[in-house]
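Support request from a user on the community tier.

User writes: "When I paste my structure tokens into the form, the page sometimes reloads and wipes my input. The last time it worked, I copied everything first. Here is what I submitted, just in case something in the input itself triggers the reload:"
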């Protein structure tokens, strides 16, 4: 007789089987003390309380647990300097339909995304969420490709203890897309059920983008603002690496100081710097202006893609792109990263297309759940000032997918 109970909720259950009357069969066995006992069932994987002499009852106690799920997370907050990652746990992002969603053990599971370059070690933290208490239950990871190693192994990892995880290192030897599945397993490696999944994209770095940093001197200033150009670009690259982008200083000859007719009491916006002073902008160059801050200037920076396609009625006009940003009174790399994001077509995370001049190159936010400002550490959010300073850290998957096309 095979008995397969259908249990749909977690909890503790007791099954009382009147097997003597049902089967009219009693098996005899002798226990360790030499006493002969009756039993009807042998089930090594259940908690079995043997029937008393001649009663013919078997009581089986079964503990049913939620299988839980395995979450993949960055090892620390500076992961952006080494790879791109989106854990798909932000509700707003889930609602924007950017993630692969699977049904796992009766619940929705949003698949985490990892982006890396080939032959790069990526250390990821695994976190099990569930209530399984059996110390013999393990976790193992599987991938169908030999081009991805998991802690140095291909196809299948060793068994990991459920509650004493080590971080895992992924490395892709070839560019491509890989899926890693996580399973609960018994101590002998037998798979019980799937509890997690991560998508890994190994992509090449995009061609280097050239930057010109121009120091603006107002009419009543003696010197131009000072800036460590190499350090600024290095810090910007530490954030854009997760999107497979790299900026470099333009080594062509150009004048990096710009005298203007505006005094320190005058407002100087990006429109003035790009349209009113006769600079010639190259389409393949990004420009960052460093200008002292006027007392009335409240912005930390400004960045626009002035140009693109202008539509008036049925007429579409191609405009010269001016990929330019301005930093007011500082050389903060977080602000530079934010403004360069605008140059690359990214909007603020809370803006829909009606709020901006959405040219053809601008990332489309239509039908996306918009995230309130000041609530994330995304480069395209605003950050509150204070001590200690809150740094921007991570792009979302949908932004990275846009940036790698630029």
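"...and here is what came back when it finally went through:"
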């Amino acid at each position: 007789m095979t008995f397969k109970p259908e249990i749909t909720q977690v909890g503790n259950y007791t099954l009382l089987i009147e097997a003597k009357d049902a089967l009219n069969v009693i098996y005899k066995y002798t226990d360790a003390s030499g006493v002969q006992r009756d039993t009807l069932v042998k089930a090594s994987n259940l908690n079995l309380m043997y029937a008393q002499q001649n009663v013919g009852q078997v009581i089986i106690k079964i503990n049913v647990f939620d299988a839980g799920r395995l979450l993949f997370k960055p090892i620390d907050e500076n992961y952006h300097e080494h790879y791109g990652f989106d854990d798909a746990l932000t509700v707003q992002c889930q609602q924007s339909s950017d993630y692969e969603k699977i049904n796992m053990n009766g619940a929705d599971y949003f698949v985490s995304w990892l982006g890396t370059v080939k032959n790069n070690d990526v250390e990821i933290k695994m976190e099990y969420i569930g209530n399984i208490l059996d110390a013999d239950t393990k976790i193992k990871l599987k991938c169908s490709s030999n081009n991805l190693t998991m802690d140095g192994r291909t196809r299948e990892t060793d068994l990991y203890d459920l509650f004493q995880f080590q971080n895992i290192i992924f490395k892709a030897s070839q560019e491509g897309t890989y899926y890693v599945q996580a399973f609960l397993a018994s101590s002998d490696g037998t798979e019980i059920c799937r509890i997690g999944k991560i998508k890994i994209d190994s992509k090449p770095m995009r061609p280097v983008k050239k930057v010109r940093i121009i120091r603006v001197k107002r009419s009543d200033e003696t010197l131009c603002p000072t800036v460590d150009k190499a350090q600024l670009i290095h810090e910007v690259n530490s954030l854009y690496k997760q999107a497979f982008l790299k900026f470099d200083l333009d080594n062509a000859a150009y004048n990096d100081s710009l005298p203007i007719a505006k005094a320190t009491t005058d407002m100087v916006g990006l429109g003035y710097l790009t349209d009113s002073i006769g600079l010639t902008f190259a389409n393949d160059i990004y420009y960052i202006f460093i200008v002292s801050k006027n007392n009335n200037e409240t912005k930390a920076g400004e960045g626009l893609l002035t140009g693109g396609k202008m539509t008036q009625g049925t007429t579409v006009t191609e405009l010269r792109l001016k990929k330019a940003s301005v930093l007011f009174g500082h050389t903060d790399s977080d602000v530079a990263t934010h403004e360069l994001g605008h140059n690359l077509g990214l909007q603020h995370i809370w803006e829909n297309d009606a709020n901006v001049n959405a040219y053809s190159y601008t990332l489309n936010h239509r039908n996306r759940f918009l995230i309130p400002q000041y609530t994330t550490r995304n480069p395209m959010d605003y950050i509150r000032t204070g001590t200690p300073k809150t740094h921007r850290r991570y792009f979302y998957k949908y932004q990275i997918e846009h940036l790698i096309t630029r």
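Agent notes: The reload is a front-end session timeout and is unrelated to the input. Residues 19-29, 37-56, 307-312 have pLDDT under 50 and may be disordered. Helices lie at 19-23, 91-95, 229-240, 270-275, 333-343, 397-403. Escalated to web team.
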